[in-house]
Amino acid sequence: MHGRPRKDPRPKDAAAKAAHLHDLQAQLLQNHRNRTYTKEALASCSKLLEINPEVYTPWNYRKLALQHNLDGVTDPDAVKSAIEDELRVVEIALRTNPKSYAAWYHRKWVLGRRLMPVEFEREFRLLDLLLKADQRNFHGWNYRRFVAKLKNVPDEEELKFTKKMIDTNFSNYSAWHNRSALLSHLLKKKSQGFDSKKNTLTEEYELVHDALFTDQSDQSGWFYHLWLLDQTVCLDDPQLISSWPTHKSDLILSKSNKIDGYQLFPSSNSSSFSLLHTGTFPIILYFNKAVKNIDSSTVSVSSLFVTNEDLNWRPLSTNNSGEACCWVTFLTVPEENCSSSTSYPVEVCLDRYKDIVSSNVSDCKNPSKFTFTVTFRSHSLEQTSKESVEENVVWNYVDICNPQESPCLMSFDQLSINGDHAGEGFKWNLQILSNEIELFREFNDEDSKFVKLTLARLLVAHDLMVPNGSHNHIKSHSGEVLTLYDDLMKLDPSHKRYYEDEQSMVLMDQLTSDKDSLIKHCWQFDEPTSSSFHRQYCLRLNDLSLTRIGSVKNILWVQMLDLSHNKLHSVEGLEALQLLACLNLSNNQISSFTALEPLKLLSSLRVLDVSFNMIGAHTIDTTRYLCSSPLSHTLDAKQLNVGYEKETTEVCDRWEVTLLFRALRLTQLDIKGNAVLNEKFSVLATELLPSLKWLDGKRVR
Amino acid sequence: MGGLEEEKHARYIVSVEKKKDDFEALLIEHLRMNGAYWGLTTLDLLNKIGAIDVDEVVSWVMECQDKDCGGFAGNLGHDPHLLYTLSAVQVLAIVDRIDVLDIGKVSDYVAGLQNDDGSFSGDMWGETDTRFSYCAICCLSLLGRLSKINVEKAVNYIVSCKNLDGGFGSAPGGESHAGQIFCCVGALAITGSLHHVDRDLLGWWLCERQCKDGGLNGRPEKLADVCYSWWVLSSLIMIDRVHWIDKEKLTRFILNCQDKDNGGISDRPDNAVDVFHTYFGVAGLSLMEYPGLKSIDPAYALPVDVLLSSHVPSSYH
Question: How many other C-beta atoms lie within 10 A of the C-beta of residue A194?
Fold first, then answer.
């Protein structure tokens, strides 16, 4: 019941009307039960539907009656008259309620039976009437698509109709929607007149500008503009945009006897990077969009010490789709190679790149490859490795300073294909973007949130198409974008946290995509303590008001990451950081264990600080359906039953915490300052994390 | 303005049940099964379900079942349909009496409505709509019989209804609509398929449903309506973007739609109340963690404790 005033005076004949309706309904149900399909019975049914079109059983009854009454009838006039009756009842019902699902379907059902040729004129007339009365009636639009399909009306014709509706009234989201759907069909088919995406899009931009600048507060055109922007920048085919190890890098591996220890050494030479984890290291591929079919047949890894076929590639995603932006495989170096000090070249090549596809079934168009070398060092590390894993890592920075030299492992310009982004093929796209940017900058002095938001999006899209590395003369616009989002938060405080999230992504990009800026956030311990963790570079992105993670492709090399004192409520994206050993997420806004799901994919993670967050503080879990759980059929409930002791089951979010901790191999966990804690939690944590040595600064094993 | 009138709303819901003969009640007589679900869920969220005679509810629900096909009708004498079959199963779940069902028969009825393209018909007459995909998937999941359908095809059909604004329509090409989005996102959530959703794009479209008055609308340039508090909020929660709206303003909007004298919640301030909007108002407040209300699950639209007892091994709750 919509739009009826609360203090609606009852009409005097209310009781009589109710009694009449009651009788009609009772009659209908009786006729239905008795299968009475006489003229009188059908007439009474029509009266009922005129008053109450949405009640579904009478429509079913009419279908049965039609089937019954036309059974064996060959006289075309009799058929025609019966069909006419049905179409008329629908029209009468729609007059009472033009949004009646049941009435609309009845018409589709009757026409769909093709008992007589469809009078298309009549159907389009009916539609004109209804869409004139309510331009946004989505039943009407659905029905129009149905009739157009039945008549085989070409998409081009229907496109003209959307133009006609838009010209009548710019504020018609339904028409814009239909236009976007029709156009993307036509563009995909490269139909005549739509074979140049550039020309089509240019015309559409002109059309939508008229709408946007007629009424800047109307949403309809803005959503359409966003779609055009997406069409302008979208690179259909997936591309490899980052990797670890990076192209032309030198890796120095050192072997120690520790089974599960992590020993890391600052390398002597600034173009190399070293790590060791029981002779195993990852190769990470990062694509611009989620792809599938990464395996040893599509990607080949050539080196002297591994057999490509033995490599197992894994998508880094928290769902079961088999698709991800980021893929990893682990190379294990055979014992005999570890003692030599030869350098081994490794080549990674996307061999059958055409088989690597994204969810929109576009395949990779470019072959990509990168090479790096691995050098084995046999020198002993005993003096640092002895206590390393035993020690509680304290995140204080008293002893650290910015390193003299850069960590040298950033992935700038590492892939030879990168330069092609801004190649000839993208000239017109960039030209359109520049024109739009210019236009919206002109209008930006007016306080329209959509102008500002669109300008911000255009600038981000522009920067994305022109990576810093390849075109140094074009400055990044991130400063301007950050200011736009600041303005938006003031202009439209209801959506503040949307703007914060967008701003956070831009800020992350600004901090990490430029070598000079990144170096300011890289720290190294001045006087290394005995802990091996303190010997690596720590990327400190703390206290920056970040709300979400972005641009991980730029920091795939990170092993120690400090994200404390931000406003993070999500850690999505961190799953790509396969080298990450120490992570500080303290003093953020993470509100559940399920929100930490991406950490399950970090096989190197040993030290985790999630203290002073909001885990357990909320009754509604916003990430429950984004992680494996029995509720989404991504986890067999029986798997949960493998038990722990009864007395530890008093913790809230039990199954989530069980699943998370079982997947982690932490030696150190800091979790104090969260609502979830009670005295039993530490027992549970210790039980679920057999490798745990330190919990909230206390030694547990 | 004051808070939520729990007592009055509970009394209103019980009273509606008794007014069967006025014109408005007759207009919706055919969907009493939905009404039972809305009413009972509201009472449960308000912690007031104790007043209900469970046996009476169960026997009426079972009387609405079609003995031949196993589906449920909206009321006695009406035809079976997926819309009411889901409500019937949800009602039985709330009163913890799923055991009265012949689960094989009910799930056969639901599974039998899947079409070759993966879509679902609402009943034997063949109307297809993504609403029915949700009904079927939610219902079968509650019955533990999701394996009876081709889930992959069902998911692919829903994905084929995805629009360029990130939302979903009732059929391929259909315009995005918050109610339809709930159905599609809900079905994808229950089948572990939310990776098909562009969460940032859809999240922005959904958060732009918040109007100046704080309420949410269902499509661009439409008026706010309490029922979208449910459709939009639940979708935003499932895709982890609910922080993009202003919850305080929305809470105020819903509370302003209460009939403070006689109980019940309406679509907009000062309009006539009904059970439908009372349920969506209370459920919306529950999704925003309004104090004193039970939590509702955004995908199954059932109180979380009801859901956990059917889906998670007993040692966990």
Answer: 18
Is domain A240-380 annotated with CATH 2.60.40? yes
Per-residue CA distances from B161 to B118, B171, B197 (Å) = 12, 5, 11
Average pLDDT of chain A, as a whole number: 84
The dihedral through the CA atoms of A644, A645, A646, A650 has a sign that is negative
Contact (Cβ atoms closer than 8 angstroms) between residue A503 and residue A567: no
Chain B hits for A18, Cβ within 8 Å: 21-23, 26
Domains in chain A: boundaries: 18-153, 240-380, 420-467+469-510, 513-699
DSSP for A289-316 reads EEEE--STTTEEEE-SS--GGG---EE-
Buried b / exposed e along A116-138 (16+ C-beta atoms within 10 A): eeeeeeebbebbeebbeeebbbb
CB contact under 8 A, A105 and B125: yes
Which position has the token pair 């795939």? A556
Burial of A336 (0-12, 13-18, 19+ CB in 10 A): exposed
CATH number for A420-467+469-510 (one of 1.20.120, 1.10.3470, 1.25.40, 1.20.1070): it is 1.25.40
Looking at 3.40.50.300, 3.40.50.720, 3.40.190.170, 1.50.10.20, the CATH number of the domain B6-316 comes to: 1.50.10.20
pLDDT band at A249 (very low <50, low <70, confident <90, very high): confident
Cis amide prior to A245 (ω within 30 degrees): yes
CA quadruple B198, B199, B200, B201: dihedral sign:
positive
Q: Indicate whether A129 pLDDT > 70.
A: yes
Pairing mode of beta strands A560-562, A582-584: parallel
C-alpha–C-alpha distance, residues A36 and A254, integer Å: 89
Query: Residues A13-49, buried b or exposed e (16+ Cβ, 10 A)?
Result: eeeeebebbbebbebbbebbeeeebeeebbebbbbbb
Contacts with B, A 126-145, CB within 8 Å: 136, 138, 141-142, 145
pLDDT tens for A484-501 read 999 999 999 999 999 999
**Cβ contact, residue pair B205, A52, below 8 Å:** no
Decide: A507 and A563 in contact? Cβ < 8 Å: no
Quick one: closest CA in B to A64, which residue? B125
Instruction: Label residue B314 by pLDDT band (50, 70, 90).
Output: very low
For β-strands B265-266 and B273-274, DSSP reports them as antiparallel
pLDDT digits (tens, 9 = 90+) for A213-243: 888 888 999 999 999 999 998 766 788 888 9
